[in-house]
Amino acid sequence: MNPRDTGGMNEPDGREEPQPASRHGMATPRHQPDVIPGEENTAGQSALAAFRRSRTLYPGRISPEQRALRDQARAEQSSGKVLDRLARVGVRTLHDRRLPHSAGQLDHLVITGSGIYLVSAVAVTSKKPFQWLGGKPCVGGQTLTGLADYTIAAADEIATTVAGDLDPGWTIAVFPMITIVGEKGFGLHVDDGVELAGVRRLAERIMYRHWLLDPVEIALLGDAVARACPPAT
Fold first, then answer.
1. What's the N-to-C CA distance of the chain in angstroms?
2. Of 77, 40, 179, 71, which is closest to residue 119 (Cα–Cα)?
3. Which residues are bridge partners to 191 per DSSP?
4. In the 8-state DSSP scheme, what is residue 35?
5. 194-198 β-sheet, strand order
6. Which 8-state DSSP code applies to residue 70?
7. Which letter, b or e, does each residue of 151-188 get, where b requires 16 or more Cβ atoms within 10 Å of its Cβ?
8. Residues 127-182: tens digit of each pLDDT
9. How confident is the model over 186-216, as pLDDT tens digits?
10. Strand 174-181 and strand 188-191: pairing?
């Protein structure tokens, strides 16, 4: 029997149930249970699909473009595995998503008690080595300035869109990050306003800030992010 179905017995006496106070000074978010986030993508799904399509059309010797797609998929998969392990401590990670109102791709969105982390993965290989040039981190001879600018702009767009899906009182913090995959000696660095972390230290950097949200609020925030940033494929 449904415990709420009393058959007319124990009718309400007109007294209002006390409402729990909002936590951390935030208003209760508008939850939309009728809006169910789509199937979750796996890490590197779009890059891997593009690589396979290209190999089907051009099955000869692997081209530089195909190699870049393959290496990017592997980098996203490696960083995705690190982030997925954080599920055991209440962290939700969305892989391979789209920027709100855009086709721009997002590698990882990590929802924690301290906010949202937008993580862009960079593949380092023998053909695209990591170097310090003029005091700036470079991969394959190219600086990461363009990726850093994109990640910052994407973080701002996500924060604005997610805030619009929640009641006033929420402060949406989106932290832009770049993770370097394939360079074992890389630790931490801040460049162009974005934190860079080697994949081995990625989980540590995600977890070091103090958490302000409880598990229910993390779940609500995660659903809002999933609605704002749909799967890329």
1. 42
2. 179
3. 194
4. S
5. 92-98, 105-112, 115-123, 174-181, 194-198, 188-191
6. H
7. bbebbebbbebbbebbeeebebebbbbbbbbbbeebee
8. 999 999 998 999 999 999 999 999 999 999 999 999 999 988 898 999 999 999 99
9. 999 998 889 999 999 999 999 999 999 999 9
10. unpaired
